Amino acid sequence: MENVELLFFDTFSHDISEELNLDLVQFPKPVFISEVRIIPLGARVQADFPGGVRLGATNPSQFEIEFFVNDLSKPGASTFESLGGLEYKQNIHIQLECERKQIPTDGLVLRGWYTTITLAVYGTLTKSLSNPPEVPTPAANSTVCVSGSEETPECTAQIPEQSAEWYYENPQPANSTETCVAATPSPPVQPIQTVDPSRNVVPEPVATVPTEQWEEHPGNALIKMGKRPSSPPTESLVSLSPESISAEEEDGDRDGIEIGTVEPFEPILSDEDIMADDAPPSVDYECDVTQVLNQYSLIPPDLLDLNKPVLPTGKKSDDGAGHDRHQKMLCAITKSVLNFINASGQEKETFVHNCETMCLMLNNMDLSKDDFKDFTKVVDAGLDMDLARSHPQPAYKVRHIKVGVRLAEALCKIPHGPAVLLDVKAPSRLLYLCMQENVALPVKLSALRALDAALISPEIVAQFSTPNSNLYKLALEMLDAAKLARLKYALSSLLRKIHVYELLAETTELTESVVSELTNAYMFAPTLMSQPKRQLPASARIEFEREPGTHSHLIAYFSHHKLMHRVLLALISSKSNVCLIKAIRHFLLCLAETTEGLLYLLDIPEITKMILRALHYDRPGLGCLLAWRLQVVQCLISLQSSDWTYLKKLHSFLAYPEGLRAIIAVVPMDKFIEILLPYLSDVTLGEFAAEIISMIVRYSDHVEIFQNRATDILEKSRNHPVLREVTSYLTIAMQRTSWDYSDVSSLVIVIRKHSNRAPSLPGELVTACRILVYLIFPSKNDSDPMEPYVELKHCNALTQLFAAGGLPALLTVMTNIAEFYEQPYLHRAALTGRRGLALAALLLPCVKLIGAMLDRLVKCMGTDFKDLTAVVPLLGVYSLVEAMPSTRFVHNLSNEIVETLLIFTRAVDADGSGNVAKSLWTQMLGEVLKMVALSPCNFVPGIKLLERLLPPILNFKEIAPEDVPRMLGQRKLWSAHLQAQATNLTETLRLLCNSWNIDLLTLLSSVCKQLSDLAAPTALLVGRCLLDSVLAATPLEKNIPILVLLGDLVRHAPLKATLLTLTSPAARAQVKSDQRYPPVIELLCSTLKTTSDNFVQREILDILVTLCDSTLSLIDLDASETFEKRLTHSVPSKEPLLAIITTLIEILANAPKYQLDILKHTLNALISLTAHNYGLYHVKSCLESHPAALFELLEHVSNLDDGDENKKCVSGLTVTFLESLISCKLPTRTLFLRVQQLASVISWGKTNHPLEQYEDTKDLVEALKNVEQKEEKESIPEMLEPLLPTPEALLNQFSQRSFGLITRPIKRSEKLMFGPNHQPLHEIAVDLLTLATELLPADFNLLSETQRLCTKAPPNDTNQSVQPKAQIDNQDNRDPQKSSTSTAKTKQPFVTPMRGRAQFTNSMRGGPAAGGVGRGADPFRSRPPNTSRPPSLHVDDFVALETCGAQPTGPTGYNKISIRGPCPSRGVMVGSGGRGRPWLPETRPPYLR
After folding, report:
1. What is the 3-state secondary structure (H, E, C) of 1174-1201?
2. Residue pLDDT, tens place only, 1306-1348
3. CB within 8 A of 319, min separation 6: which ones?
4. 225 to each of 205, 283, 912, 1181, how far by Cα in Å?
5. Mean pLDDT rounded to a whole number for the chain
6. Which residues of 516-551 are buried (b: 16+ CB within 10 A; e: fewer)?
7. Could you tell me the sign of the dihedral formed by the alpha carbons of 1220, 1224, 1228, 1233, in that order?
8. Strand partners, 45
9. Quick count: other Cβ atoms within 10 Å of Cβ 205?
10. Of all helices (H) and strands (E), which one includes residue 1172?
11. pLDDT at position 236, please?
12. Rounded to the nearest 5 degrees, what angle is found at the Cα of 654, between the Cα atoms of 652 and 658?
């Protein structure tokens, strides 16, 4: 072609390397493209450019790319015309010749797997077609280059015919023989982005499916575009590349514009115009409502839409010839049976041969009733020993019996087959065959295997339990007489099935024990009820072969006895207790974990629907899990019948978190994935199946399903961009060396290689960890703990992993992840969706593998194992896990971390010798305590972890008596190891006691109860910390949380005993510092009297009442002990008790100052104290010291409104208290006041005494009047002070612990909800700046640290490396200027330096926020890239370039990077994150440093 010119030269760049990218080159004039050339990376191109030289930037070095053009000769075409494809290889294949395809076009589309591409397009302008009308402007000749990353929209847009007015009135015919773009199905047709230089990016969808296909499948076209967005008018285009060809040179008679007058910069727009560009232009869409699929509506699917599945019956012989052949063979076998004795040897041998062939063809035969009658005769003859002996050849005697057994076993797999066996009495004949002498062991095992297969029929199992049958007796006799292990194992498996059937038959009402037995039978059926072939039963084997389909027998028994009906009745019955409901839920969960169980539930849809309603399927939990899994199974079964609509329905489940989890759990079961694989080859539905499979690859831990399928999926991934994204996952799975149990070094190498990119979750790393889990752990937890089977191949793989250095490699992965998520709760939003699911999918295998290696090391080395390197990464990961939303998957991960940390508690000397302070147990606890106090973000997760590590609070009612010594010994061990960390534990508890956070205080209360429950030393430690916090919290009325915490903990008996010991002046202080604790009681009493806050009064009163409660004690209430000895350990000593009673009496004396609820609590406390002589004496003495107290109370209560309910309650308690002073029916009290004494303490001598106004006081008032009327006063004997024995030491009290419930339940369910003046705690004003100045170090730059944390975002799964926090910390992070630019040093892929791009690329990678600190979004800098010419400069950037001596203007972006000198590039974020001057910190006040 003549006059070939350079039409276009520029570079496209994308941020994501593993997506199929699309780019568009749009020409202002129609052209013929003759050649497309890709410029390799680093290649220098010299031409008539400003600057003279351009550099190629194509990356990667090898990829596939396709080119498409808009054929202007076909204005009504709905697709782009293919220009050809190229397999680009750097410096080898770089050009595509297109001279044969003379297609007039104005747009070139690129589609390929590249990150950056430098493109040169050669061709000529064509004069064969008239140009569109245009207004001559200096910018008439331009080229628009746009880069757009391919995404997956939710719907596909189809482009109808283009408007002819914008193109050509008289188009000339062109070559139309080229093929169109290959049709790709919905949904993932990616949009191409086109750009108007004066407007924002406008998405222009490109339809790649021919119209005929859309008409055949109307459901695929969800939205039709009414009008294609037209190319912008040429007067709005500006010169974007200096090599653009001028229109004057090609068509001089049209206009006379010189090239030199072309303005190389676009006009500067006003802020209003720029902001208006953010709104995309309106595009008219026509949506056909009938084409909107119901599967993609916003309404979730009906989870109760369940139907009985129609399972495929298998392949049958459809051709008449095959059926006739089978019938002839069956007839021949039947005829030979009739005269078998008299038949010749050849005929008998033919019978054996035909029966062997019939066993193979039985599953493919359509059998009638007559055929079953014939089979009855054949099986009867096959099991006849006499007929077998009639064979002349000895070998055929055995083969005859074997084929009879095989035929009986084959009949069990077809309908009505067990009925044939019953007709010939096959069960008894098979048992008798096993009992015959001189029968080879393989024949006996085959007979038992056939009998076991026959047990799938409930009718045959019933034969064993009928009174007239002795089958069960024969089986037991065989088991007793058998000497061979294989025979014993086979008989045991058979009898276990019979026992399950009998259990169901005899059960009339479900109980917890019955459900638990059924659950265990179903879970362990693969190992306890199987009939493995060629395997010697042993407790340890290299590999244990599991027989498939062992659950089928149990499912048949469940169905026969209608077990689900009973389950439904138990779920809805009011008689069912909590334990039974839990057992049923566990049983249903076990059914949901297997294919047979899900099919069983789906087979009875009506009952299953009612069970789902009873389980509240519409709420998160077991019901929701079951409902979603059943929906997935129903879709998969329907897909087997080629109902493609269910594939779209299954695909729509991915939009819901529950649906995604159900797909991940169900599709890997059995061979369900085989249903989806054929759909990958379907043009229309392939993308649906591809996305489902990609989700399985990403998130499912059942990696074994890809062992033999990875290669096929990789081959088919070439046509599916969605599958290409998971190529990295499958490349490891397709290698045979990855599945070697004897050598896992290749997987460890993969882990080491990708450990630095662990936060980006590389697919190779995830798959390698999953394969290691598959190799080291049994795939199914089906081994009965009572009869365990150890598979040595897993132990060998674990040893190989440790030998290959797997432990440090996995710890590196976890360390990098934990350091990247420095403060996990900042990333909680990012961890909510699939990102969190993928992260948990990587962490769970890592934690399990580390736990397995540590467990083996501790078992092998014991106390010689001293390695603690795994503790810190585990703690960091636990903090991250606590920030994730709570799901079953995350809960399992959390449990694994806790179990792994508890492994360090097993390395203890058996005899208790050794240095406790240096043990692994103690050091692990020290790391946990350091982690808690390290940072405020660790408070909650750290306390949660400590709560789960510590033993639970003892409840002797739930513990067997024989287990009590062992559990007490375990708690003493915990106390000893914690005592070695007393300093760290004390600092941690004191730090957390000052918190005002409700959740944290709740967790702290639980941990303090667990600590005090261990032993006396830890209880004393907790008590001292608590009392120190009370003494430090002055005034108490302004530190309500410590009061609430103290009030909650004092209800725990061990802590109450501890507090009584520490606050008693008479008790011998164990350390000198304990002498400061007795004044705590006086501090509480004084605060109670002086404060006016009702909430504070009530909290303190609760504390004092609990301390005086004689029924709450740590000592066992043994009847042999005296009451005084028990009382001395449950109430305060004399001095604290007098202070408490005096305070209570003063409250009554000043009753008008207190609310009625305070008076009620006070009266209740006094009544409880008068229940024993010790309390009565001190109450009497305090009343005598305050003679007017009760009179003031009586007068105040009598003056209250009669309609007040609280008045009745207080008046009733007052009367009860007065009566308790003079009389008591309790055997624990022998002292009482005389009526005369009572009259004295209530000031009865006054007229109109208020007591007379009280109800139910008639007898009391008469007694007082009678005493007053007596002239002679009776002598009152002196009441002697009761003395209590000296309390025992706290250590002795713990040795006599009570075997009852020792914790009083909290009266109020919601505590610590309001602060002073009833204001919610979260509304209390706090001066954060003053707090920061007071608490933060002087060299801590709060602003830069906050910026660094808030700009950190999770990376994508790309080849970019992630800079760990340790590297950042090493760069003098206390320097404000260095810390503010630390993210710029992160290694990042090259990005085209176009205007506005730096802002978005860095924000996605975790760079600083654009626009700088303290400045809003800059409209000029935030404009999207829309040109390929040199970007226009902001005035600040222009001044900055001149200041640093660089060139303010210049060629396109790539050359600017190389010639700018010291000035930072636009493609990489530096300083403040914008394109202006780097941000320099100003002189700021100390609180921001």
Report:
1. HHHHHHHHHHHHCCCHHHHHHHHHHCCC
2. 444 344 443 444 444 446 677 888 888 887 888 888 888 888 7
3. none
4. 9, 8, 80, 95
5. 75
6. bbbbbbbbbbbbbbbbbeeeebeeeeeebeebeebb
7. positive
8. 54
9. 20
10. none
11. 33
12. 115
Instruction: Give the C-alpha separation, 840 to 834, whole Å.
Output: 10
Q: Who's near 1402: CB < 8 A, 6+ residues apart?
A: 1383, 1408, 1410, 1468, 1469, 1473
pLDDT at 659: 92
C-alpha–C-alpha distance, residues 583 and 575, integer Å: 15
Query: Which pair of tokens denotes residue 1171?
Result: 């229940």
In whole angstroms, give the CA distance from residue 631 to residue 638.
Answer: 11
pLDDT of 843 higher than 80 = yes
CA gap 329, 335 in Å, rounded: 10
| Residue pair 1130/1058 in contact by the 8 Å Cβ criterion | no
DSSP character for 1114? Answer: S
Q: If you search the block for the tokens 């003759």, which residue do you land on?
A: 34
Q: Which residues of 1329-1368 are buried (b: 16+ CB within 10 A; e: fewer)?
A: eeebbeebeeeebbbbeebbeebbebbbbbebebbbbeeb
Angle ∠(723,726,727) on CA atoms, nearest 5? 90
Contact 1008, 1055 (CB under 8 A): yes
User: Which of helix, strand or coil describes residue 32?
Assistant: strand
Distance CA 200, CA 622 (A): 49
- CB of 40 within 8 A of CB of 151? no
State which of 1093-1107, 1216-1230, 1401-1415 shows the largest mean pLDDT: 1093-1107
Question: How many other C-beta atoms lie within 10 A of the C-beta of residue 936?
Answer: 12
Torsion of CA 1374, 1375, 1379, 1384, to 10 degrees: -140
Closest CA to 551 of 780, 857, 876, 872: 780
Instruction: Record the tokens describing residue 1069, joined without a space.
Output: 């202080």
What would the pLDDT profile of 1436-1482 be if each residue is shown by its tens digit?
A: 555 555 544 444 444 333 333 333 333 333 333 333 333 333 343 44
Tokens describing residue 749: 């190498």
Q: Which three-class secondary structure state does DSSP give residue 989?
A: helix
Q: Determine the Cα–Cα distance for residues 393 and 401; give it in Å rounded to an integer.
A: 13
Question: Could you tell me which of 516, 497, 500, 515 has the C-alpha nearest to residue 564?
Answer: 515
The pTM score is 0.69
Angle at 817 between CA 812 and CA 820, to 5 degrees: 120
1046, 1009 contact by CB (below 8 A)? no
Q: Distance between CA 645 and CA 1246 in Å, rounded?
A: 95
Query: Which contiguous run of DSSP H or E holds residue 309?
Result: none
Using alpha carbons, select from 183, 187, 240, 176 the residue that is nearest to residue 213: 183
State how far the Cα of 768 lies from the Cα of 1047, in Å rounded to an integer.
52
User: Residue 161: how many CB atoms within 10 A of its CB?
Assistant: 12
Q: 537 vs 1303, which has greater pLDDT?
A: 537
Average pLDDT over residues 779-802: 80
- Residues 284-300 have pLDDT tens digits of 333 344 434 454 455 77
| Residues in CB range of 713: below 8 A, 6 or more apart | 677, 680, 693, 697, 706, 723, 730
Q: What is the pLDDT of residues 323-364, one digit of tens each?
A: 667 677 777 777 777 777 777 878 888 888 888 887 877 766
Residue 20: which of 66, 76, 81 has the closest Cα? 66
CA–CA separation, 632 vs 595, rounded Å?
A: 11
Taking the C-alpha atoms of residue 408 and residue 426, their distance in angstroms, rounded to an integer, is: 8
Supply the DSSP string of 1404-1438, one letter for each residue.
Answer: HHT-PPTT-TT----TTTTPPP--SSPPP--HHHH
Say what the pLDDT of residue 313 is.
55
Q: Are 1410 and 1473 in contact (CB under 8 A)?
A: yes
Confidence band of 430 (pLDDT split at 50, 70, 90): confident
